[in-house]
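Fig. S4 source data, part A: sequence.
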Amino acid sequence: MPWNLILDFGNTRLKASLFFDGALREHHILETPTADAVLEVAGGKPVQAGILASVRSDDAGLEDALTDFFPLHRLGPDTRLPITNKYGSPHTLGYDRIAASCAAGQLFAGRPVLAIVAGTCITYNFTTAAGGFLGGAISPGIGMRLRAMHEYTQRLPLVDMQGPVAFPATDTDTSLRTGAVYAAQLEANAFYLELKAQYPELAAVIGGGDASVLANGLKNDIFARPFLVQEGLNRILEYHASNL
């Protein structure tokens, strides 16, 4: 049975995911984003098709090289989506936001859904029960909050988000970490509860690289799926291919 190759090209790293029969089977982070590295990850599997979602402007060579091996679709304005994009400025919408919303819409079909992506920034992405993506909010990610407190002060250290979190914190490292993590958790819960009051059937899911850190303090009915964006990109690839 054929495989799908999902390429998520952020500012610094290329994430390559392999899906088989709609399920994520392998996930790799490539420090060297070359066609050879991608093909090595594929490992001779019968890749049926791939999708490239990128924020880079220097990836044309990668795209051209891979199309010699399998059909590769670049996510863009012409991509057919399983949800309706009603965002006010669609040309500025990050692919991770629309991908997470497509995955969430598949997970909770027929319900309004909030898809949270916790990465460099934390994004909140709302899709109606009818499948209309309306938008949401963007705020600094946990790592960005920690870096800002270090870089915009003279004496506060840069601490890792992985570590003790407690309130009241009894040392500076824990105080910084607690402030960043708790603030993000409280923010996410507030956005969720505000939407829940308007849409009682609201479902919510969180993905992204920092999903596990953020999810620990979220409401029990906000489900964690760290690879939500990759699942959404696979959903988009399959939908686009079937609606050409």
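Fig. S4 source data, part B ends here. Residues 1-74 form a domain with the Nucleotidyltransferase; domain 5 fold (CATH 3.30.420.40).
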